[in-house]
């Protein structure tokens, strides 16, 4: 056998040796992947039953005489024409947007010193935020109700939004601080050398590079404000000021057997957070929470 | 730079610190929701510590918190580990599994009510069909406890999944590879390599979830209202009822304060432990 033939055979053997196990490995991987898919699909469907249930019931309008389920939009038409759901929705959106905007601004500002300062004060403040985060809302809500009543902020959307901002502040501060941690300090130093003020460098260098952090904090604030029940139930007393959680609960108590409209209102309430998560999920990182605890 | 903290400090003082001081005063008086009442010293605290309803609520709060944090962590961690490996539809599952946490509690309790509340609801019907007899998920004390705990686990495992997913990203693949080459089984790798590396985020997730759970109001209030016969009463619901239904503000605030003291003590303890966690990064 000539040199070249030898080489060709050797190369062929090598390719065969390489190719076969790879394809077997790949096939095994693929089977394993689809097995995981199947198992996860079953588990996920079970877990999501309560949510699927809401959506299915919201489109059901009773049964025909022959026992067939009627599929309809009537439940939605009914709540939008016969209940103040639009008022609830507007109130919820107002409170939530207010909380998100101001909450993120405050968190974005406070996160910066928490990320950059390594002194006792910053550590102490970080611990304070940690402890405050743990305070039962109930212990703050009761005295606040008395205080806010004297300021005219009880039964007001502004008052509720202020409490949400304070309530989500610890987490938004941490999220922002941990995002800033990932931005190299040298960038600001360079800006300072070029004559930028501390605040200027913060806004133009750090904030401009922190959109994912800002988005995470915004999503968190949104969820806190949109989903809260306790603060709203204590503070919002008149129906004109009801947010969706209170409105839904109020409606549910009056129509507890009429599931169609109740579930239609539930769908109205669950859609905004679900849409936001579906769209922005990949930007949402909660990993920084507590990472700022030094 | 520290000036950037000003708005947050202002808010902290106005919305957290000031009411807290105000609340200390309230807890030392026997007032109602508006009237200040008479100064009674520590009487409200003494009342709480002698009240069987208080201890009942404290006991259930403990069970509710420990079981739901523990189980939701195990489930969340399992999903986070499964979702690390590529498989078809992975990112879709990651999103779908977050839904129980994203959907407002008021909405999900409504749906759970539909599913379990009465004898003709779907889940009790299914249980009967499977031969488990008549299970009263919200009317039987033991089952009501199980139901609210399962609900809480359902609503909070995605939070654990998120936290653990983020933590697992910090694990260096070469460390795992080294363990694999040394012949470590998957369990050994998890137990002795991965878990110690992410010990700090694990502690943090436990502490945060425990705080969220102790302070959870709507789960209990909307599912069982603390019943039947107080079986699922937690301290937060107990305090709320005292203030807003019995109008015993002083007593209610004292109960809320006792919760606060325990939470602060536990979180400061864990805060110190977190920083001493092995391989804390």
UniProtKB/TrEMBL annotation, chain A:
<dbReference type="GO" id="GO:0005886">
    <property type="term" value="C:plasma membrane"/>
</dbReference>
<keyword id="KW-0472">Membrane</keyword>
<dbReference type="InterPro" id="IPR035906">
    <property type="entry name" value="MetI-like_sf"/>
</dbReference>
<dbReference type="InterPro" id="IPR050901">
    <property type="entry name" value="BP-dep_ABC_trans_perm"/>
</dbReference>
<keyword id="KW-0813">Transport</keyword>
<dbReference type="GO" id="GO:0055085">
    <property type="term" value="P:transmembrane transport"/>
</dbReference>
<feature type="transmembrane region" description="Helical">
    <location>
        <begin position="93"/>
        <end position="115"/>
    </location>
</feature>
<protein>
    <submittedName>
        <fullName>Inner membrane ABC transporter permease protein YcjP</fullName>
    </submittedName>
</protein>
<feature type="transmembrane region" description="Helical">
    <location>
        <begin position="127"/>
        <end position="151"/>
    </location>
</feature>
<keyword id="KW-1003">Cell membrane</keyword>
<dbReference type="Pfam" id="PF00528">
    <property type="entry name" value="BPD_transp_1"/>
</dbReference>
<keyword id="KW-0812">Transmembrane</keyword>
<feature type="transmembrane region" description="Helical">
    <location>
        <begin position="259"/>
        <end position="280"/>
    </location>
</feature>
<dbReference type="InterPro" id="IPR000515">
    <property type="entry name" value="MetI-like"/>
</dbReference>
<feature type="domain" description="ABC transmembrane type-1">
    <location>
        <begin position="89"/>
        <end position="280"/>
    </location>
</feature>
<feature type="transmembrane region" description="Helical">
    <location>
        <begin position="157"/>
        <end position="177"/>
    </location>
</feature>
<keyword id="KW-1133">Transmembrane helix</keyword>
<feature type="transmembrane region" description="Helical">
    <location>
        <begin position="34"/>
        <end position="59"/>
    </location>
</feature>
<feature type="transmembrane region" description="Helical">
    <location>
        <begin position="214"/>
        <end position="236"/>
    </location>
</feature>
<comment type="similarity">
    <text>Belongs to the binding-protein-dependent transport system permease family.</text>
</comment>
Automatic annotation (TrEMBL), chain B:
<dbReference type="GO" id="GO:0055085">
    <property type="term" value="P:transmembrane transport"/>
</dbReference>
<dbReference type="Pfam" id="PF00528">
    <property type="entry name" value="BPD_transp_1"/>
</dbReference>
<keyword id="KW-0813">Transport</keyword>
<keyword id="KW-1003">Cell membrane</keyword>
<feature type="transmembrane region" description="Helical">
    <location>
        <begin position="220"/>
        <end position="243"/>
    </location>
</feature>
<dbReference type="InterPro" id="IPR035906">
    <property type="entry name" value="MetI-like_sf"/>
</dbReference>
<feature type="transmembrane region" description="Helical">
    <location>
        <begin position="193"/>
        <end position="214"/>
    </location>
</feature>
<keyword id="KW-1133">Transmembrane helix</keyword>
<protein>
    <submittedName>
        <fullName>Trehalose transport system permease protein SugA</fullName>
    </submittedName>
</protein>
<keyword id="KW-0472">Membrane</keyword>
<feature type="transmembrane region" description="Helical">
    <location>
        <begin position="250"/>
        <end position="271"/>
    </location>
</feature>
<keyword id="KW-0812">Transmembrane</keyword>
<dbReference type="GO" id="GO:0005886">
    <property type="term" value="C:plasma membrane"/>
</dbReference>
<feature type="transmembrane region" description="Helical">
    <location>
        <begin position="135"/>
        <end position="154"/>
    </location>
</feature>
<comment type="similarity">
    <text>Belongs to the binding-protein-dependent transport system permease family.</text>
</comment>
<feature type="transmembrane region" description="Helical">
    <location>
        <begin position="57"/>
        <end position="83"/>
    </location>
</feature>
<feature type="transmembrane region" description="Helical">
    <location>
        <begin position="95"/>
        <end position="115"/>
    </location>
</feature>
<dbReference type="InterPro" id="IPR000515">
    <property type="entry name" value="MetI-like"/>
</dbReference>
<feature type="domain" description="ABC transmembrane type-1">
    <location>
        <begin position="58"/>
        <end position="272"/>
    </location>
</feature>
């Amino acid at each position: 056998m000539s040199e070249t033939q030898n080489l060709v055979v050797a190369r062929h053997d090598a390719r065969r040796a390489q190719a076969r196990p790879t394809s077997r490995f790949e096939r095994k991987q693929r089977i394993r992947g689809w097995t995981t898919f199947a198992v996860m699909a079953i588990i996920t469907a079970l877990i999501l039953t309560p949510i699927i249930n809401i959506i299915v019931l919201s489109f059901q309008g009773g049964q025909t005489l022959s026992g067939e389920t009627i599929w309809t939009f009537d439940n939605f038409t009914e709540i939008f024409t016969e209940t103040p759901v639009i008022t609830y929705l507007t109130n919820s959106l107002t409170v939530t947007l207010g909380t998100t905007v101001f909450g993120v601004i405050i968190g974005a500002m406070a996160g910066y010193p928490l990320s950059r300062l390594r002194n006792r004060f910053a550590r102490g403040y970080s611990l304070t935020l940690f402890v405050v985060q743990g305070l039962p809302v109930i212990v703050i809500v009761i005295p606040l109700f008395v205080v806010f009543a004297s300021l005219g902020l009880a039964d007001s959307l502004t008052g509720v939004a202020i409490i949400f901002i304070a309530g989500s502040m610890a987490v938004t501060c941490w999220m922002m601080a941990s995002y800033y941690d990932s931005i190299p300090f040298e960038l600001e130093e360079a800006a300072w050398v070029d004559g930028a003020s501390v605040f200027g460098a913060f806004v133009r260098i750090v904030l401009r590079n922190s959109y994912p952090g800002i988005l995470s904090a915004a999503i968190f604030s949104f969820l806190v404000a949109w989903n809260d029940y306790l603060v709203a139930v204590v503070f919002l007393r008149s129906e004109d000021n009801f947010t969706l959680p209170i409105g839904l609960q109020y409606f549910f108590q009056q129509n507890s057997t009429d599931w169609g409209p109740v579930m239609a209102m539930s769908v109205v309430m669950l859609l905004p957070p679900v849409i936001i998560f579906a769209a922005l999920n990949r930007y949402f990182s909660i990993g920084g929470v507590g990472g700022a605890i030094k | 730079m520290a000036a950037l903290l000003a708005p947050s400090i202002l808010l902290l003082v106005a919305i957290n610190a000031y009411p807290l001081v105000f609340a200390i005063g309230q807890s030392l008086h026997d007032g109602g929701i508006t009237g200040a009442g008479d100064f009674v010293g520590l009487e409200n605290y003494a009342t709480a510590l002698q009240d069987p309803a208080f201890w009942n609520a404290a006991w259930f709060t403990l069970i509710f918190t420990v079981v739901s944090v523990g189980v939701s962590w195990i489930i969340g961690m399992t999903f986070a580990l499964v979702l690390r490996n590529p498989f078809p539809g992975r990112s879709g599952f990651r999103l779908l599994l977050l839904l129980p946490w994203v959907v407002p509690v008021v909405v999900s309790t409504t749906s759970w009510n539909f599913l379990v509340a009465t004898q003709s609801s779907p889940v009790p019907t299914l249980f009967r069909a499977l031969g488990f007899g008549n299970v009263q998920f919200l009317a039987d004390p033991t089952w009501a406890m199980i139901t609210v705990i399962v609900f809480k686990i359902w609503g909070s495992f995605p939070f654990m999944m998120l936290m653990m997913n983020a933590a697992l990203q910090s694990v260096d693949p070469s460390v795992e590879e080294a363990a694999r080459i040394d012949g470590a089984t998957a369990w050994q790798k998890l137990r002795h390599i991965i878990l110690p590396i992410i010990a700090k985020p694990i502690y943090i997730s436990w502490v945060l979830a425990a705080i969220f759970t102790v302070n959870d109001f709507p789960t209990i209030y909307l599912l069982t209202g603390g019943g039947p016969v107080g079986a699922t009463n937690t301290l937060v619901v107990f305090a709320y009822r005292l203030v807003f239904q019995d109008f015993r503000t002083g007593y209610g605030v004292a109960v809320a304060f006792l919760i606060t003291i325990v939470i602060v003590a536990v979180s400061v303890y864990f805060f110190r432990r977190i920083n001493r966690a092995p391989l804390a990064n």
